From TrEMBL:
<dbReference type="InterPro" id="IPR020472">
    <property type="entry name" value="WD40_PAC1"/>
</dbReference>
<feature type="repeat" description="WD">
    <location>
        <begin position="261"/>
        <end position="302"/>
    </location>
</feature>
<dbReference type="GO" id="GO:0000398">
    <property type="term" value="P:mRNA splicing, via spliceosome"/>
</dbReference>
<dbReference type="InterPro" id="IPR015943">
    <property type="entry name" value="WD40/YVTN_repeat-like_dom_sf"/>
</dbReference>
<dbReference type="GO" id="GO:0017070">
    <property type="term" value="F:U6 snRNA binding"/>
</dbReference>
<dbReference type="InterPro" id="IPR001680">
    <property type="entry name" value="WD40_rpt"/>
</dbReference>
<dbReference type="InterPro" id="IPR019775">
    <property type="entry name" value="WD40_repeat_CS"/>
</dbReference>
<feature type="repeat" description="WD">
    <location>
        <begin position="345"/>
        <end position="386"/>
    </location>
</feature>
<feature type="repeat" description="WD">
    <location>
        <begin position="303"/>
        <end position="344"/>
    </location>
</feature>
<dbReference type="GO" id="GO:0030621">
    <property type="term" value="F:U4 snRNA binding"/>
</dbReference>
<dbReference type="GO" id="GO:0046540">
    <property type="term" value="C:U4/U6 x U5 tri-snRNP complex"/>
</dbReference>
<dbReference type="InterPro" id="IPR036322">
    <property type="entry name" value="WD40_repeat_dom_sf"/>
</dbReference>
<dbReference type="Pfam" id="PF00400">
    <property type="entry name" value="WD40"/>
</dbReference>
<keyword id="KW-0853">WD repeat</keyword>
<keyword id="KW-0677">Repeat</keyword>
<protein>
    <recommendedName>
        <fullName>Pre-mRNA processing factor 4 (PRP4)-like domain-containing protein</fullName>
    </recommendedName>
</protein>
């Protein structure tokens, strides 16, 4: 290429200039992205509705015999986006037609399913609980906001130093199968649960010595959750059902669950306790997530939203919101006090494998098999605040550590654990020690020493201690 030739690859994109109408290009592009998200929320999830919409646009005949429901919905989404179809106008016309039909037949069946009395009661409990938690959180945030400026920077540096000082302090070969999940007892940091692929669950002490191994849970155990209010209780997915155990009953490999929660139609990828300890949520390969009442051993809510497998979910600290993330590369934010998604987080180009709320209540992080972490801000139309090219390959786990989650951490199939400042989202350190893919990691402040500590596990069948 001659010196007089301009490379298009090096041209910068300026979106801050205004059009002749006085509208900033950046604002216009943001409005287009918001409109695209709103359109996506209107795409039906019921296969019969998808078929009817394809039929309306003369696209149903293109259905192949082996086309799945999710593939059919994806094809509808692509058709809508390629042809700039206004779904809101179509739905409005359909609703007007439905209204006319209802006038002709007053006995027309309702188009929605009323919530059960148990779900209504659960929502009331969640409203009361989350209101109290939000009040406490805001009081803490206000107190933190009063910190003098000359103390803020040294405090942030101290948090970064804690992450940078972490190093490998122990390792143990636990199983003959890959280790897939780790979870520290929040009430007793000397207890650690480690899940495997097809070799059950191990209860380990703080030195990674096995105190119990039980094989009741079956399949790939990619998630374990301790009850936040009952120190001996935890839940584990066993293929398509959830099993509740107590550490008191783990004296032998034949330990049986206290309660089981059947209902899912495929592998359960993630389980999580509501902060109150009264409820739990599960995400499954059957493309649904479900809410359960633990004490009643009852399913309260089945939510269909994703077009592919739902792989991860998380409650916010207050307990009124839940975020679900799927292999369709989309995360949905749900208000548990109602029955609708209040936000769609789309932007990843491949499936999502992990998701986490920050303590502040408005930041969400998502990790994808595209190797990136995205930071989302619910205060600004759920826009993407930052995109971090974190790992070479799939991101398997992420989280926060610090009094106010000042540090974000992640691990992936590249065998590296990385730490980032939650203020600038700049990497501050990394840990290397596993041979192969890391499946899960968890970092926390030790109850006794107040130092930061962490555990990780992977395909090398090891569980490692970092402190």
């Amino acid at each position: 290429m001659s010196n007089n030739t301009v490379s298009l690859d090096n041209l910068t994109v300026d979106t801050n200039y205004e059009t002749s109408n006085g509208v900033k290009v950046s604002d216009f592009l943001q409005s287009l992205d918001l409109k695209r998200k709103q359109q996506l929320m209107l795409v039906p999830t019921d296969d019969e509705d998808v078929r009817q919409m394809l039929l309306k646009h003369n696209q149903l005949q293109q259905t192949s015999p082996d086309e799945s429901k999710s593939d059919r919905r994806e094809r509808l989404i692509q058709y809508i986006q390629q042809n700039n179809i206004d779904l809101s106008a179509e739905i409005q016309d359909q609703e007007m037609g439905n209204a006319s039909d209802q006038e002709e037949d007053e006995d027309e069946e309702e188009f929605y399913t009323p919530a059960s009395m148990e779900l209504v009661e659960a929502r009331k409990n969640i409203i009361t609980y989350s209101s109290q938690r939000a009040k406490q959180r805001l009081a803490i945030q206000y107190k933190q906001s009063q910190m003098p400026m000359d103390q803020i920077l040294p405090y942030r540096h101290s948090q970064t130093s804690k992450a940078q000082n972490l190093e490998l302090s122990g390792s143990n070969l636990i199983s003959s199968k890959p280790m897939s999940s780790v979870s520290v007892n929040p009430h007793n940091h000397a207890q650690l649960l480690a899940g495997t692929w097809n070799d059950g669950v191990y209860l380990l002490d703080q030195n990674l010595e096995t105190t119990s191994h039980f094989s009741a849970p079956q399949g790939k155990i990619s998630s374990i959750s301790w009850n936040p209010t009952q120190q001996d209780r935890f839940i584990v997915p066993s293929h398509d059902e959830i099993q509740l155990f107590s550490t008191v009953d783990l004296s032998s490999s034949t330990a049986t669950p206290m309660v089981t929660f059947p209902g899912h139609e495929d592998r359960i990828a993630c389980v999580s306790h509501h902060p109150s300890g009264q409820y739990l949520a599960s995400a499954s390969f059957d493309k649904t997530w479900r809410l359960w009442d633990i004490n009643a051993s009852q399913e309260l809510l089945l939510q269909e939203s994703h077009s592919k497998e739902v792989f991860a979910l998380d409650f916010n600290g207050d307990g009124q919101l839940l975020v679900s993330a799927g292999l369709d590369s989309i995360a949905y934010v749900w208000d548990l006090r109602g029955d609708k998604s209040i936000s769609i987080l789309s932007g990843h180009i491949r499936g999502l494998h992990c998701v986490k709320f920050r303590k502040n209540g408005y930041h969400i992080i998502t990790g994808s098999s595209d190797g990136s972490i995205k930071v989302w801000d619910l205060r600004s139309q759920s826009s993407c605040l930052e995109t971090i090219p974190a790992h070479k390959g799939l991101i398997s786990s992420l989280g926060f550590i610090g009094d106010n989650d000042e540090i974000m951490y992640s691990c992936g199939f590249d065998g590296i654990i990385k730490f980032y400042s939650s203020d600038s989202w700049v990497k501050c350190s990394e840990l290397i020690g596993h041979q192969g893919k890391i499946m899960d990691c968890q970092f926390f402040q030790d109850q006794d020493t107040k130092n930061w500590k962490g555990f990780s596990c992977g395909w090398d069948r090891d569980v490692k201690i970092w402190e």
